[in-house]
Amino acid sequence: MPPRFVWPNVSEKNDGANREAKRSARERLQVEREREKKREKRRRTLIVASAVVGVLGLAAVVGLIAANTDKGDGSADAGPVSAPSGATGKDALAIQTGKPEAKSTLTVWEDFRCPACKAFETNYRDTVHELEAKGLLKVDYHLVTLIDGNMGGSGSLKGANAAACAQDAGKFAEYHDVLFENQPQETSDAYGTNAKLLELAAKVPGLDTPAFRKCVEDGTHNSWVNKSFEAFRAGKFRGTPSVLLNGKDIFADQANPVTPQKLKEQVEAAAKGTGGGAASASPSASASASASASASPSKGSRTSGAGAPPASSSAAAKTSSTASGSRAGSAGTATGTSTGAGAATGTSKGAAED
Fold first, then answer.
1. Burial category of 246 from C-beta neighbours within 10 Å (exposed 0-12, middle 13-18, buried 19 and up)
2. Which of 154, 174, 170 has the alpha carbon at shortest distance from 310?
3. From CA 113, how far away is CA 311, in angstroms rounded?
4. What is the pTM of this model?
């Protein structure tokens, strides 16, 4: 049989082309995988940020100043107003943490029974404490009794009084965190029992003293808490928590809320004098002039403010909302219940329901 003629190197060329095609396919697949990983990472980041802000934003909307409908504050029976040691701001209604000279001020209106307030604390606490430690941020805490009026009981009032007693002992920041970390179910009035508040005080070294116990049991600062709640109602806030950075509501823009990372960036930018989306540091403020609490420098890292009326049961319709709050590496669920009633002008009433 005569030998076949074969074009030289045809087989080698085909093999090379196949290898090149396979390598190109692998490279394209690798590139696509990397793109998918980046897309998934961005998606998870957005979900986490949206969930955190969703809890707080929803709580603010559902709150809708439920307190405006509860006019029977019972403050006449609470005794004279006694602000805790170091109270600061207008009418001494704020308890301040951080360094007074810090350029930025975070104003926080909270209720120790409020689940959405716990969600805020859980997700923002580390960032707030970090900025305080650096001397970049001070926080003015205003304590209110919204949930007592919505759900009944006295846990909001007694918890706030106990926190004010901790302020007298120079332990407010530590006890404040303990109360939120151990917050009972919203429908439970566990904080309405002094024994529970005293039990939790044992978690703060040096707080459980005879003076602190007497302050808690006597309700020394009840009238101060009541007056703070009056300021909250007068300020026409949407609910708790209401959080303002240098006078600006950080959850006002639901499309672009201030996440913990954005809070850090804005505070650091303000300290450098480069703006960063937040106004330059201003006194402790509320969303309305009538409820603003201007921060005044004082000695020590903590200062306090005065007042809020005792929460009484609200006659308005009750509404409940449940939202999930997540943070990077952890997740939490918060249920916010509040009584929705009263337009900002006070001329119309209606129940707010999500």
1. buried
2. 154
3. 12
4. 0.63
